[in-house]
C-alpha cells in the first residue's frame, strides 16, 4: 500500500481537498485504484450537527455517514464510493480509545496520547486504506490522506505525530507528504511572498515530516514562477520539480490537468514506483479535458436561481452547484447560479426590507429555472413556499430537494386544495393540518445521526407513465439515492393531493414514504425527498438535475422524444466517443484477464467513465 499525506500551511481553506482529489484523479487515469481519507481534528463525532456556516455542506455517504464536504470532492473526482470510516475525527479516535479502556484492553496501563491515540490513528488508516471503494471490489493501491486544518494547530498535533511514526512503519519509499501552502501577493508591492511558506515547511520539518511535494497556492499566477520556484527549492530543501504552482482557476476540473502539465503525475509514479498504462491515461485525460473545455467554452448559459437559507456561503450548497455544473456541461451549456435568500421572498420582508425583497424577486424572475434545496429550521420556509408557488403558476422549471419537496407539497395544499392551515410539524408541533410530519423512529433527544440517512431504494408507481423524471431515470422500476431528513409527507393527505394533480410517483419499498412528486401538465415541476446531488458525477450527471437544465433551455421535450439521447450539438461527447468507450472496455477486459492470471491488483474500474 502506498500513502500520500496532504497537509496545509499558512492558512485554512487553502484548497487541500481539491488538490487531494486531483492527485487521485491523476493516479486513476493510469488505471491505479485509489482511496481517500479525510482527517478533521475537531472533537465532534461527525459533521451531522454542524451548521453549514461552520464547514460548508454536510455530505452524506451510502452507508449514512454524515461527513465533511471534501469527501464529496473525492467521490466526484475519483468516481468512488467511500464509507463513513473514510472520515476520521478527533472525536471518533478518542471515543474508540476510551471504549477500549473501558473494556479493559489497556488493563494496567496509563492511557496516553502517545502511544495509544497515535497508534489508534495509524491502525485506523491502515485498516480503512484496504477497503475497496470501486465497483469492481479491488483493494486500493494508493491511499490519499488529507489532514485538515493548518500545520501548527494544536488540534492536529496527535495526527502529525502519528504520521511521523507511520512513515517508518510503512517505509518512506511508500509514503509521500504533499504540503499545500499559500503564496502571499500583497497589492502594495506586487511581489510574491514566500516567507510564510518557508516558515510553514520549517514547522512541518520540525514536527518530523519532510515534504516531497510543495504545492504553492495563490490567488493570481505568480509574476516570476522560476524565481519563486528556485527560492522555495533553496530554502525548503526540495528539488525544482517538487515545487508546483496552483493559482485560482475558472473551474476546479482544470486542476488535475494543470498539475499534470507541471509533471506531478510523472513525479508521483516515479517516487512511489507505480505502473502506468499510457493508452489508458491518454483516453482518460482526453475525456477529462473535454469536460473542462465544455465548462469553459460553452457559448450558451442557463441561469438557475437557488432559493436557500445559507446563501451567504456558497460551500453550503457545494454538491448542488457541482451537480448543476455536471448537467450543464453534459448538454454543452454553462450554468450561472444566482443565490436567493429565501427569507427575502416573504411578504413580511416587503415591509422590513423592501430593497432586499424586490432584489430577491428580480433574481427569481430573471432565472431560466429554479431549485429549492434542503435545509432545517423555521427561517425562510415561507419564502421557499412562495418560490414553489411562483414556479407552479408561471410554469417555470422547478426542482425541489428534501425541504424543497416538503414546501412544494405545503404550497400545493394551501393554494390548490385551499387547506389554509397546511403546515409542517417542524415549525408547529400542534399544526391543525400537518401535511409534513416527523418520522416516528426519529429520536428528538439525540440530534446526531438520528435522521433517515444514506442510500435507500425508491420504487416508481404505476402512475409514472406521464412522468418526466421517470423517463430521465431510464424508465427503471426502482432507483437508489441518498437521503438525509427527519420529516416526511403525511400519508393521510396523499390521496387528496394526488387527485388535485400533484402525483407522488416514487415511494419507498414499503409504499409508506413519498420519495418523488411531480406536477401534471407542467414543463418540469419535480421534487424529491432524497438528495440526488450526492450521486452526481462529472461524466454522469444526476437525472433530476439534467432534467432541470434541459427544461430550462427548452430541450427537455426533444431529449425525451429522442429516447433520452442528446443531439450532436447538445452532447458533451465528440464524434469519436463510441470509439473511445470501446477502447476503455477493451482495456478493462484486458486488465481483468491479467488480474486473474497473475493477481495484479491494478485493474480498471468499470464505472470509470
Layout of strands and helices, then pairs:
Elements: E1 2-8, H1 16-28, E2 34-40, H2 52-55, E3 59-60, E4 66-67, H3 70-78, E5 87-89, H4 90-103, H5 113-129, E6 142-147, H6 157-169, E7 175-182, H7 195-206, E8 213-218, H8 225-236, E9 243-247, H9 255-261, H10 264-272, H11 278-297, E10 300-308, H12 318-330, E11 333-341, H13 347-352, H14 354-365, E12 369-372, H15 381-394, E13 398-401, H16 403-415, E14 422-424, E15 433-438, E16 452-460, H17 468-472, E17 478-485, E18 487-489, H18 494-499, E19 502-507, E20 514-519, E21 525-528, H19 543-552, H20 556-561, H21 577-598
Parallel strand pairs: 1-6, 1-7, 2-5, 2-6, 7-8, 8-9, 10-11, 10-12, 12-13, 13-21, 14-15
Antiparallel strand pairs: 3-4, 15-18, 16-17, 16-19, 19-20, 20-21
Helix pairs in contact: 1-3, 1-9, 4-5, 5-6, 11-12, 12-19, 15-16
Structural summary, described in words:
Strand 20 (514-519) and strand 21 (525-528) form a beta hairpin. With 609 residues, this protein is of the alpha/beta class. The chain has a nine-stranded mixed β-sheet with strand order 11-10-12-13-21-20-19-16-17, with helices on both faces. Strands 5-2-6-1-7-8-9 form a seven-stranded parallel β-sheet, sandwiched between helices. A three-stranded mixed β-sheet has the order 14-15-18, covered by helices on one side. It has two domains: 2-290, P-loop containing nucleotide triphosphate hydrolases (Rossmann fold, 3-Layer(aba) Sandwich); 298-561, Rossmann fold, CATH 3.40.50.880. 39% of the residues lie in helices and 19% in strands. The two termini are 25 Å apart. The longest helix has 22 residues, at 577-598. Helix 4 (90-103) crosses helix 5 (113-129) and helix 15 (381-394) crosses helix 16.
